[in-house]
Amino acid sequence: MFLATALRRIARGTLASLSRGAFFAFIVVWDIALVLVNLVAFKRKVGHVTPKGHPGAGGVWPEYIPPRAGDSRCACPALNAMSNHGILPRNGRNIPFRELPGKVRATYNFSPTFSLFVPRYMASILGRSFSKDTLNLSDIDVHNGIEHDASLTREDTYHAKSQALPLPALVAALLRSATGPPQPGHTLAEDELAGSESKSGKDTPELEGPPYADRRREARATNPQYSQSFNAKMFGTSNASGLTTIFGGRMDDIRVFLAEERLPAGWESRVREPMGLTFGAFNVTAIRVELGIEEEVRGPAVP
């Protein structure tokens, strides 16, 4: 009896591993094809990036309503904004996993590969079925699953168990990181997001806040449970890289998106490729940002 049970578990585990490997290979091949299509196809016209018939088409987004008591929110501003506009249930609860890919793709013009892979990954880390089950937004805040330490907009879970709302001080520090006076069209560059040089110029872990180099130093200095696996780092830089891709680095839009988790009137994704923002293109940006992050505090210069 014990042997039969053990064999069944091994068989199920093996089949699950093979299934995950096959799905990942499928996503990679599909994404490469989408990259090639984007290289040769015409871009979507400005003003027509959001598909006709979808909320936000023509820059007209559904009414924005901030979360109310009892609503479920998470560490992802993009999903929170969709609930705040009613694209996802406004209470952020009982969202079918299978509905996320189409809605995320139409709202932000992510590629179908990205839009499918991430919700399936969410379901996997929660031990749920992508095709049958639902989630509340707060469910995805499993530590070091997608949520991670040293977020640019949230306190670490060591300091704040709830990741539902952004921390205004962190958002303000990120907004200050872009050089030049705030004005329409002012943008945030990849090197400013990475923050390879501490803005304070100090040789201590004290921070002015984000970008990433300073934020990671601060988290490591103040959080005794600080952890940053490779996957957590890449999730963090990938999420932040959306500010320079989906939002094109435009600070006037980023300010509203991060502080209020709202999509500005008239906004549409700055990604105009017909197949959307692919993993290939997205990861190139994320890797550039990650390579620009210098986490170690430099010692004083030698005369």
Number of helical elements: 10
Q: Biggest sheet, open or closed, and with what strands and sense?
A: 2 strands, antiparallel
Low-confidence stretches: 197-207, 298-303
Question: How much is the radius of gyration in Å?
Answer: 20 Å
Shape: globular
Strand content: under 5%
Helix-residue proportion: 40-55%
Q: What structural class is derived from the secondary structure elements?
A: mainly alpha
**Count of beta strands:** 2
**Mean pLDDT across residues:** 85
Order of adjacent strands in the largest pleated sheet? 1-2
Secondary-structure element pattern, one letter each: HHEHHEHHHHHH
What is the end-to-end distance?
74 Å
Organism: Auriscalpium vulgare
Protein name: Chloroperoxidase-like protein
